[in-house]
Write a structure and sequence with these properties.
The structure is a homodimer.
Chain A lengths: L19 H13 L13 H12 L2 H4 L5 H28 L4 H6 L3 H9 L11 H11 L9 H24 L11 H18 L1 H5 L10 H14 L4 H24 L12 H10 L6 H17 L9 H9 L6 H21 L4 H13 L4 H10 L1 H17 L1 H21 L3 E6 L6 E3 L12 E6 L5 H21 L7 E5 L8 H16 L3 E5 L3 H9 L2 H5 L4 E2 L2 H15 L4 H9 L3
Parallel strand pairs in A: 3-4, 4-5, 5-6
Antiparallel strand pairs in A: 1-2, 1-3
């Protein structure tokens, strides 16, 4: 039919089609190199490029020449501070991983040196972490009993570390670090809280002085283990409770102190790459997550060859490093040196460290990870995220660490897929005294336009939601036709502002929707299709079938054109007058 | 700081928070019952509800009382027409599934009767399909050799049919039919084309008169099988080629005829639910996919008990049924009766059906499924969908049917996840002589506003893209600051029109972006947050930290407010003048 009378102020632009290879190249660049890491290499001579490249892959080459005595003083203080954390934590976490304490100390010696050379964060302090230690003991413990076959167990742990390093380095080299983004905030809160709970439960062994203990990490096995042993001790109950009370008290008092001094109250964070990134933000410099992955991988590969087990950048230690005023990764070198001194001269002393002290250190560190405040925040802001969080927690505590992780990731992904599969559609109305159109649900003040149905969708149109949208739109039309008696409705406007992209299933859906609208004797009008969408609509000849003159830049213009046609076609001017009355601004 | 001078025409509405249970209920309803199947039951007396309920679950009760002689005449003709298809196809597809021909005929007898009672499509013709038959022989053939142990093989096929029926019915009852939506159009084109190619390759056995043949379905095994046997036949090459040529010619001629008469040219479709739905659209009635799933399930459960194997609603037969003018599911009853007559009186004849005829029937049906035109269309409209299609095809042809399906579904999902993880961000500019703001990429005519950076994002903000967006936005600011010399930029406007929803990871990201913007001495302004987003922003106290007066209904208003402040704070009015010059409409 066309619309010869109404002049559109600016037609919707159809961007020129890009050559296939160029758009593929752009797609790969955006997916794998969104941060454009090689930006600085552009327009540089070859020699400069080589130097920049070396500095890129080995950042110490970049900061070492500019290293000053001021920096050294700061790094020395920070390094000694974190070393004082590294020694007890190293020993405790090694015991959590069922490894000899000396391996925990080694792990605070070689990996920090590697990271100091390859890492790009200035604040990150390298070390072992409780959750990874727990994972090692719970997964390797199934294969080899660390008490019966200690040598094999240690070898297995070092092999696992080696392959973890290879995996990290490979992810970084292949620029696949973004996979980590698929762990949501809620998953991490639940998972870390669950892991911390499990770690604390494991400490019941040390605190209660139990001899035989389960290798399972779930709540049921641990409680059964605890109660069966307390039951066996019935013959000398007095001794058991005296044995148990003193260390328990020390743990409780210690934990309360730690809690009050807020030493661990930095909230829950993904350890590793995210830690470096958070602190980088404070000092306003940029961290390339994939490059950090490579540094972590190399650190674990090198570490595993010299009897170090899995290390990363723990949040708590990095926070201490940051607050102690570190300037460069040099603080890691200082820490390594301090740990070496400890290893050389103080090792004999650790032989006498009571297990209960180690347990206390672990519990104190763990309490900060049970971030119930974050969980309450999730409940307040997003119930669905809260459910994800609780599922992860329950999975870890009642199942195992792996089950918890799988449950949480699955729920997160399912939720995302569901929200893609079930986008919301909105009925738009005119905000009085304006040309603005907004959802009638959100703005009850908005008015329906007689004879025109305006639908909006708030997500990309994909195969996963194309069927749903078709049904939904047909349903909305039915309702509208019913409510108006089927006579006055003449135009259906689809507002595509929020449809960022589409695929061929989406295009088929649009075609079917158009057929359906045609069959009812209505006219389909499109408002504000985005460049990706309009390109595909043109290529699939959908625009031809609608007519280019029925595509408008804004909903307001589309409505104005519809009203113009209604006005022109109807003998009475009532409809157009009504609309003009709305828009007398 | 606030903005006391500029009056916003309408503040952004913050919808009242819904009670948790109500929003959960609404979420479940939208996910599982988007089509609101119980709509008609509302506000009805109990007795009426019972009748409606019976009619809902057994649709024959609804249409049988209104059945007229006119309907019967139409259904009779349609039924006999599809029976004439059902008999040869039933025998051919049974041989494809390595089952006795009689089972193929049984399958066109009982299942149509069950569907006629329970199904809600008026046009769907029930029967066996080639791809499912191929799947049965390729999967069960691995376990049991149909030639050596025919009895066990048939029992296995019927058991598989029974459990397929149980699975279908369960999916329907649990309202999980939407899982099928996750198969994209491109996947189906590639998968069906691949399956058709494999089926045709399998027919080389019948056409070339080969005795021993591979049980593998992949191209390599089949070609090896063909060439090894042709090689063995070298001693009597003349006879082999004479034997082979005649049937080959008949197949070629037959296929060309079929192609020219367009009998199969209905394009590629998912068989089953989607078929019924497509035809329902023509007659303007509605099909509930989940209810259809239950009907298919019951049909297969009942069928498997009386020696019928897997049936569904094939597209080609349904199209014939539709074109023959069927009025109700009664045409299926007529077809069943006609097949019964065939079974009773004509069975002895089928003993002499030459294999080559069966092969020809299968190949003729399959050629319509290799929809190369659709593949060309995919290439033109969406290269990524084309890659998905080709992967599915190659997976099926060179691997196996299962491998092809897994590859195609994985690629489709990965593509969707990637597009969620990597949304596009846009820089907006002012379209001259209007208050409209659009992407500068799409509308090169759009002008930058001095001192203001306007960013837009075209997808929901989730945990999967929160990290990426944060980096992206910070990068854009950097670029803008660099290009303007860092002095004049004062406001960053985020246009949230296309952000349909968000989660707690998204909210954290907004908070970090705000911190970063604050640190640079800039001011963050939001434009048009949608109801889901603003609710969560309010609950997480983000709106408080920005200030409610910095949230605007449109980008235009946000820019006007920023300009007003720039104007008020600067001694020279240059900036505001520039903007006024743009907007002198």
């Amino acid at each position: 039919m066309g619309n010869p009378y109404y002049e559109c102020p600016l037609p919707v632009t159809i961007p020129p089609a890009k050559p296939f290879l160029e758009s593929i190249k752009l797609g790969i660049k955006e997916t794998l190199f969104p941060d454009d890491p090689f930006r600085q290499f552009k327009n540089q001579p070859a020699s400069r490029k080589f130097i920049l490249g070396m500095q890129y892959f080995v950042p110490i080459l970049e900061w070492a020449p500019r290293y000053t005595f001021e920096f050294f003083k700061a790094d020395l203080i920070a390094g000694i501070t974190i070393a004082s954390l590294a020694v007890p934590q190293g020993i405790s976490y090694a015991s959590l991983a069922s490894l000899p304490p000396i391996i925990g100390l080694y792990s605070s010696f070689v990996p920090p040196l590697v990271y100091a050379m390859l890492g790009s964060s200035k604040d990150l302090a390298v070390g072992t972490v409780a959750v990874a230690s727990l994972l090692i003991s719970s997964m390797l413990g199934k294969e080899v009993n660390p008490n019966e076959n200690a040598r094999l167990y240690v070898q297995l742990a070092l092999t696992a570390t080696f392959f973890a390093g290879v995996f990290q380095a490979a992810l970084g080299l292949l620029r696949l670090g973004f996979i980590v983004d698929f762990l949501s905030h809620a998953t991490i809160v639940g998972f870390m809280g669950g892991a911390a709970t499990v770690v604390c439960l494991q400490q019941l062994k040390g605190i209660l002085g139990l001899v035989r203990f389960t290798h399972g990490t779930d709540l049921v096995s641990v409680l059964r283990s605890v109660f069966s042993q307390t039951h066996q001790s019935k013959r000398k109950p007095c001794f058991f409770w005296i044995n148990a009370m003193a260390p328990m008290m020390s743990v409780i008092v210690g934990s309360v102190l730690v809690y009050l001094t807020n030493a661990e109250k930095y909230g829950v964070q993904v350890e590793g790459v995210a830690v470096g990134r958070s602190f980088a933000m404070f000092k306003n410099y940029h961290i390339d997550g994939n490059k950090e992955m490579i540094a972590f991988g190399m650190m674990n590969i090198a570490g595993s060859c010299v009897s170090c087990y899995l290390t990363t950048g723990p949040f708590s230690r990095t926070a201490v490093n940051f607050n102690a005023g570190c300037k460069t990764a040099g603080s890691n070198i200082v820490m390594a040196a301090a740990v070496m001194v400890t290893l050389l001269f103080l090792t004999p002393l650790f032989h006498y460290t009571p297990i209960v002290v180690l347990s206390s250190i672990i519990i104190a560190a763990m309490l900060g990870l049970i971030d119930y405040e974050a969980a309450i925040g999730l409940w307040k802001v997003d119930k669905c995220d809260f459910i994800v969080c609780v599922s992860a927690y329950i999975g870890v505590v009642f199942g195992s660490v792996e089950i918890g992780l799988v449950i949480a990731v699955t729920i997160s992904l399912l939720r995302m897929l569901l929200s893609v599969a079930r986008p919301r559609t909105f009925l738009l109305g005119n905000i009085p005294n304006s040309m603005i159109f907004r959802s009638i649900d959100q703005y009850p003040i908005a008015n329906n336009i007689p004879g025109v149905l305006i639908l909006q969708i708030d997500a990309p149109v994909y195969f996963a939601n194309a069927n749903y949208l078709r049904e939904r739109w047909i349903y909305e039309e039915d309702e509208k036709l019913k409510s108006t008696g089927g006579s006055s409705l003449q135009y259906v406007i689809l507002d595509l502002s929020a449809v960022g992209s589409t695929d061929t299933s989406g295009i088929s859906m649009f075609k079917e929707v158009k057929k359906n609208i045609d069959r009812r004797g209505l006219k389909l009008v499109l408002a504000n299709p985005r460049s990706e969408v309009i390109k595909k609509l043109v290529k699939s000849k959908f625009i031809e079938s609608i007519g280019q003159e029925w595509i408008y830049l804004t909903v307001g213009e589309a409505v104005a054109a519809c009203n113009f046609m209604l006005h022109a076609s109807k003998s009475n001017n009532q409809v157009a007058d009504e609309f003009d009355a709305h828009n007398n601004a």
